[in-house]
Design goal:
Blueprint (H helix, E strand, L loop, with lengths): L5 E7 L6 H14 L6 E6 L2 H6 L5 E3 L6 H8 L4 E5 L10 H14 L3 E7 L7 H11 L4 E4 L2 H10 L6 E3 L12 H10 L9 E5 L13 H6 L7 H23 L2 E4 L10 H11 L6 E3 L6 H7 L5 E4 L2 H8 L5 E5 L2 H9 L6 E3 L5 H13 L1 H30 L6
Helix pairs in contact: 4-5, 7-11, 9-10, 9-14
């Protein structure tokens, strides 16, 4: 029987300017090319994805928006890796807009691998029905935490075993603090001998599963009730806490947007907070950095990281950097819980200047202890994240001879 390379396609949201999604996409593409059988890897993406993916990975720019083009590509594909969350909080349209692709691919006979994804919240009947339908069409189902498995079990996902692994981003190559300092120095942001504290903010809002995608609602001025006020209080609290970091710890503060421009505007949020600081001369905003490995190197430099973006904390923790989390989602608490860091995270809705300061000061005073705990825990999570590749490998091996 003739043997051939296994043809793997990756679909997710990593072509966005969200560094967390890009980090996941890069890790998955690298792992899909590192199986026990030869494989050809194709990623559905754009020029941004092509800018950070390995040269041997084909970036398909033409098949995302067209059902016919996507179906044509799937007829030459063995496995489709699905890399996007199953949630309906941002919009009721989120899952219909994404899940038609794996469902069509499965109809065409392609194996489907859900690759270390997060699941939930699923607040609507439509969301739960679509998530159950997709999960019960999957040939391999790996989620990044126990809470995601519990959500899938609660909605009746039962066709294949649900494996609890870890976020693929933990498998990115080790960071280089020296390169991170060089990247900062090139931009005039080298902190010198002062302690550096990085902050990855985000716009804070809650959306109760409306039809209009949240980022469009905000961009067009349709804030949820009280959303503007909550967001302003959050930004003010972070600005005041950043001033205390400067005044009482002698730190320099660097805001590191990890979803700049377009949908989320983390860079605009960071500039707003920076302008509100009294000691803004001791702070800066890292502009226009979109490569996940560059961001990982930069986040290996600080003495402490404050993250309102989950993947900013994953990238920092991967270098043992003590982190404080401002949680906007259950996935955040789950990550900190797996590392036994429940006392280092608070819900974003409880953020005040004093709460952030108390959390940061506690982490600052324990940073040697936290570094040891994080370094040990991340080693375990790296091994767990590699199980995503092992599950994919088991799915791919029989296909080489088919």
């Amino acid at each position: 029987m003739e043997r051939r390379d296994v043809r793997i396609a990756v679909y997710g949201t990593g072509s966005s300017r969200n560094i967390g999604d890009s980090a996941r996409l890069l890790a998955i593409a690298e792992q899909a090319g590192d199986l026990s059988v030869p494989s050809n890897v194709r990623v559905f993406g754009d020029d941004h994805a092509a800018s950070f993916l390995p040269s041997e990975v084909m970036v398909d720019r033409s098949s995302l928006g067209s059902v016919r083009a996507f179906a044509r590509t799937m007829r030459g594909t063995d496995i489709l890796i699905y890399d996007a969350g199953l949630q309906d909080v941002s919009s009721r349209l989120y899952l219909p807009a994404l899940l038609w692709r794996p469902l069509l691919a499965r109809f065409l006979g392609v194996r489907i691998s859900f690759y270390g994804i997060g699941v939930g919240p699923l607040n609507t009947r439509l969301g739960r029905s679509l998530a159950r339908l997709a999960a019960n069409r999957a040939d391999a189902l790996a989620v990044r935490d126990r809470e995601s498995r519990a959500v899938l079990e609660s909605i009746g996902a039962s066709r294949v075993p649900i494996h609890v692994t870890a976020d693929p981003a933990f498998r990115l190559r080790e960071a280089s603090p020296s390169r991170g300092r060089s990247l900062l120095a090139e931009r005039g942001l080298d902190p010198g001998d002062d302690p550096l504290i990085t902050v990855s903010p985000r716009r804070w809002f809650y959306c109760n599963s409306g039809w209009l995608p949240t980022h469009l609602a905000i961009r067009w001025g349709f804030w949820p009730p009280g959303g503007r006020e909550r967001n302003a209080r959050f930004a003010s609290a972070l600005a005041s806490a950043a001033d205390r970091l400067v005044k009482e710890l002698g730190a320099r503060v660097l805001f590191v947007p990890t979803s700049p421009g377009q949908a989320q505007d983390d860079d605009d949020v960071a500039r707003t907070i920076h302008r509100s600081m009294q000691h803004g001369d001791r702070a800066a905003v890292l502009e226009a950095m979109l490569d996940p490995l560059d961001i990982k190197d930069v986040l290996s430099v600080p003495a402490l990281h404050i993250g309102a973006r989950m993947h900013s904390t994953i990238l920092a923790m991967s270098s043992g950097v003590p982190c404080v989390g401002l949680s906007y989602s259950p996935k955040f608490e789950s990550l900190f819980s797996r590392l036994d860091l429940e006392d280092c995270v608070i819900p974003i809705g409880e953020v005040t200047e004093d709460r952030v300061w108390d959390l940061v000061l506690s982490a600052w005073n324990r940073r040697s202890e936290l570094r040891e705990k994080i370094t040990s825990g991340v080693c375990t999570l790296r091994d767990e994240a590699d199980r995503n590749r092992q599950i994919l490998d088991a799915l791919a091996r029989p296909l080489r001879n088919s």
